[in-house]
C-alpha cells in the first residue's frame, strides 16, 4: 500500500499581528515567538479574561464531546486575546495521528523552547485542525487525535508536564483557506501561549 502523507501545520500564529513563518525555526526563534519580548505587535495582546480561560478549560475537559459552537467560542476567545504565535510544519501519515519521523525534530525544538526560562511555566493550548475532506465528525475526531499526539510526544519524549499542554480539536470548523477547504494549509495544529500577558 502506498503511504500517503498529510501535512499538518503547527501554527503558533500572531493573532494580533503578522505570522512568522519559516521552514526551520530554532529553539530561540520559537521562544521569541511565544513570549512578549519576541512577539511582533508586542503590547497588543490583551491576555485571557477569566471567562475566556474558563471556556478553554471547559473545552479541554470535554475533549471529543465538545460541541462545534463551543469550539467556535474558544477560537473567538483566542483571537480576541491576541496571543503570540509562530508557524511551522508537522507531518502526519495520511488519515492518521502518527507523527512522521521527519517532523520530530520540529517538536523537539518546541520542547526545548518550553524548557527555557522564558517559557518554563507557560501553559500552551494545542489546537488540532483538518481540511474539509471527509465527514465533519470524523475530521473533528482526527483533529483531537492529532493534537493529543503532539501533546503525547512532548510529554513522553521530553517529560513536559501534561498540565502545561491543553489539546483541543477543531476539525474543519476553522479553515485557514476557506476558498479551498481541501488545501494542505488547513491541516495544522495551532499552539498558543495561554500565559502570555
Please outline what is shown here.
With about 200 residues, this protein is of the alpha/beta class.
Please describe what this structure looks like:
The longest helix is centred in the C-terminal third of the chain and has 23 residues, at 136-158. Helix 2 (50-62) packs antiparallel against helix 3 (68-81) and helix 4 crosses helix 5 (136-158). Helix content is 36%, strand content 17%. Strand 3, helix 5 (136-158) and strand 4 form a beta-alpha-beta unit. It is globular and about 40 Å long. Mean pLDDT is 77; it is low at 1-22 and 37-45. The protein has a five-stranded mixed β-sheet with strand order 2-1-5-3-4. It has 197 residues and is of the alpha/beta class. It has one domain (5-193): 60s Ribosomal Protein L30, Chain: A.
Topology:
Elements: E1 5-11, H1 27-34, H2 50-62, H3 68-81, E2 87-93, H4 104-115, E3 124-129, H5 136-158, E4 165-171, E5 188-193
Parallel strand pairs: 1-5, 3-4
Antiparallel strand pairs: 1-2, 3-5
Helix pairs in contact: 1-4, 2-3, 4-5
| Number of β-strand runs | 5
Chain-averaged pLDDT: 77
**Number of domain modules:** 1
Largest sheet, strands/sense/barrel: 5 strands, mixed
Tell me what portion of residues adopts beta-strand conformation: 15-25%
Tell the overall outline: globular
Gyration radius (Cα, Å) is: 15 Å
CA(first)-CA(last) distance: 49 Å
Amino acid at each position: 500500500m502506498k503511504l500517503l502523507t498529510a501535512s499538518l501545520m503547527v501554527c503558533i500564529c500572531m493573532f494580533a499581528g503578522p505570522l512568522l513563518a519559516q521552514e526551520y525555526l530554532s529553539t530561540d526563534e520559537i521562544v521569541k515567538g511565544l513570549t512578549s519580548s519576541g512577539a511582533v505587535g508586542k503590547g497588543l495582546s490583551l491576555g485571557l479574561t477569566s471567562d475566556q480561560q474558563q471556556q478553554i478549560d471547559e473545552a479541554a475537559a470535554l475533549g471529543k464531546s465538545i460541541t462545534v459552537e463551543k469550539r467556535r467560542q474558544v477560537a473567538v476567545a483566542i483571537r480576541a486575546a491576541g496571543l503570540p504565535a509562530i508557524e511551522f510544519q508537522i507531518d502526519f501519515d495520511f488519515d492518521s495521528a502518527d507523527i512522521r519521523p521527519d517532523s520530530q525534530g520540529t517538536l523537539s525544538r518546541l520542547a526545548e523552547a518550553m524548557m527555557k526560562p522564558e517559557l518554563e511555566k507557560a501553559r500552551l493550548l494545542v489546537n488540532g485542525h483538518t481540511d474539509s475532506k471527509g465527514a465533519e465528525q470524523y475530521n473533528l475526531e482526527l483533529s483531537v487525535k492529532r493534537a493529543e499526539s503532539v501533546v503525547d510526544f512532548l510529554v513522553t519524549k521530553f517529560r513536559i508536564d501534561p498540565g502545561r499542554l491543553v489539546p483541543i480539536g477543531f476539525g474543519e470548523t476553522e479553515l485557514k483557506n476557506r476558498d479551498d477547504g481541501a488545501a494542505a494549509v488547513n491541516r495544522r495544529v495551532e499552539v498558543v501561549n495561554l500565559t502570555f500577558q
